[in-house]
Design a protein that fits this description.
With 297 residues, the chain is α+β, with helices and mostly antiparallel strands. The protein has a domain of 199 residues: 2,3-Dihydroxybiphenyl 1,2-Dioxygenase, domain 1, CATH 3.10.180.10. The protein is built from 5 helices and 16 strands. The strands form 2 sheets. Strands 2-3-4-1-13-16-15-14 form an 8-stranded mixed sheet, covered by helices on one side. A hairpin with a 6-residue loop joins strand 15 and strand 16. Helix 1 packs antiparallel against helix 2. It is globular and about 60 Å long.
């Protein structure tokens, strides 16, 4: 065969790029009642409590695929937006949420089917949108946290938000549009992102909730943030925090959401998380099927 007649495969190599942000590690919101947190996150959503860390009453870490919710015991915090999850069986999820309802009476807990997702609200008002595994959207993920979607004022400069992630954090970010309108996005790993959606609704004051990210180049963004007076905490050798996303040209704050920022040398980077099969019980137990798979092989 003539070599000239053999077509060279064409690939979009940019799809493989990660940028500098390599992990969306956790979403942290404080909760006033750990028993209700158990009813919602473990019994209702079917997630798995970290068996190794924060196993007391003062905090609970909850595994969801390769990410976590962190739930310290204090007055309630509410994310100004929606956390997206992927869970393997929405019908089973609805049954669990229905069962958990009796333990969450008198709270803000709610849930409903909405198209191809389940929209649910935690006892204190945090919104969580649950998707079924969809390879076209979420790749091989079966259990995980593919995005955190923040509501921002309608007047927000979306390109300025994306530029902050690109120029200060070294990430891959941009502005996109879908059936709900335009939004800013930033990649936070191979299978997760943060998004910023304009809303005309009045947003509550920021209450201190945060997300955690991990950077490959840890010191470069730190230097840029420090020069702008944006580092809010020098936590330890492996971690710092900042509060504000700012306009790169003016340093004017655009949106406040604390980023707990870790290096890839952080002792907890790339931990192996246990995920259980929430549909397994003592009544239907089958050895070897009690572990939930976070992704398809």
């Amino acid at each position: 065969m003539n070599d000239a007649m053999v077509a060279t495969p064409q690939f979009d190599r940019t799809v493989e790029d990660l940028g500098n942000i390599v992990e969306l590690g956790h979403v942290n919101v404080t909760v006033p009642d750990q028993s209700k947190a158990i009813a919602f996150y473990l019994m209702g959503l079917g997630l798995t409590r970290d068996p190794y860390l924060m196993a007391g009453l003062e905090n609970m870490w909850v595994n969801v695929g390769r990410g976590q919710f962190h739930l310290p015991t204090r007055d309630a915090q509410v994310v100004r937006g929606t956390t997206g999850l992927v869970l393997p069986d929405l019908e089973a999820l609805l049954k669990r949420l229905t069962y958990a309802k009796k333990f969450l009476a008198g709270t803000k807990f709610s849930f409903k089917e909405s198209g191809d997702v389940v929209e649910t609200t935690c006892p204190w008002g945090n919104r969580i949108r649950v998707h079924a595994p969809t390879p076209a959207k979420f790749g091989p993920m079966r259990v995980g946290m593919p995005y955190v979607e923040f509501d921002v004022p309608a007047s927000s400069d979306l390109e300025a938000i994306a530029r902050f992630y690109r120029e200060i954090l070294g990430g891959i970010a941009g502005v996109a549009k879908d059936e709900r309108g335009s939004y800013a996005w930033a990649s936070t790993s191979a299978d997760s992102k943060v998004t910023y959606r304009p809303t005309k609704k009045k947003l509550p004051d920021y209450d201190g909730h945060h997300i955690q990210i991990t950077l490959a180049d840890f010191s470069g963004p730190h230097k840029k943030l420090l020069e702008r007076g944006l580092v809010s905490e020098e936590s330890d050798q492996h971690q710092y925090r900042f509060l504000d996303i700012v306009d790169v040209d003016t340093n004017k704050p655009i949106f406040r959401i604390e980023h707990e920022t870790r290096s890839m040398r952080h002792p907890m980077f790339n931990r192996t998380f246990i995920n259980r099969n929430p549909d397994m019980s003592n009544r239907n137990f089958v050895p070897g099927y009690e572990v939930g798979l976070w992704a398809l092989n």
